[in-house]
Design brief:
Layout (H helix, E strand, L loop, with lengths): L3 H40 L2 E14 L7 H6 L2 H4 L2 E9 L2 E7 L12 E7 L2 E7 L13 H15 L8
Parallel strand pairs: 3-5
Antiparallel strand pairs: 1-2, 1-4, 2-3, 4-5
């Protein structure tokens, strides 16, 4: 008769395999949905020139978006912070939701040409020249490595010629 430990391990392995298989199929389904949504967004996209006033990550209800947008979002997502851009489009000041991938590349207090689909910004180009992006902050370990390499470069090397 097998030991109880082996039976428990076999059951755990079977459960883990079932979870991995389920997550694989759920992931495939969500990728298909995202691809369909991206096609719809691309179909209704327009290019607009706008002056970016401010950008922040904030909750939907604090962002100043229309009430209908807040009502249509799922309750769990209402509390999460989303990238919001306040921009002047023509004579109006509008709050827009930005794609998280391009949020960092949007310059503040500059005029840009943005690809907008409804209230969603999907792309940004500089109106006058290229976009100036701030360099990404270095992590703690990267700073330590940079200091160490500077220290090695600054120490004088001894010649072994005689």
């Amino acid at each position: 008769m097998p030991h109880p430990f082996t039976i428990v391990m076999i059951v755990i392995i079977v459960i883990m395999l079932a979870a991995i298989i389920a997550l694989y199929f759920l992931g495939k389904r969500s990728q298909k949905k995202k691809a369909e949504q991206d096609e719809q967004i691309a179909a209704s996209a327009q290019t607009m020139s706008m002056l970016i006033i401010d950008k922040k990550r904030m909750r939907l209800k604090d962002a100043g978006l229309p009430a209908i947008v807040v009502e249509q979002t799922p309750k769990l997502l209402r509390r999460s912070k989303v990238p919001i851009v306040k921009a002047k489009v023509g004579p109006k000041v509008v709050s827009l939701i930005c794609d998280a991938e391009i949020f960092d590349s949007i310059p503040v207090k500059k005029e840009v040409k943005a690809i907008v689909s409804g209230l969603y910004i999907t792309g940004v180009k500089g109106l006058r020249g290229s976009l100036e992006t701030k360099p990404k902050k270095k992590g703690f370990m990267a700073k330590l490595r940079a200091k160490a390499s500077e220290m090695q470069a600054s120490t004088p090397k001894k010649d072994k010629k005689k």
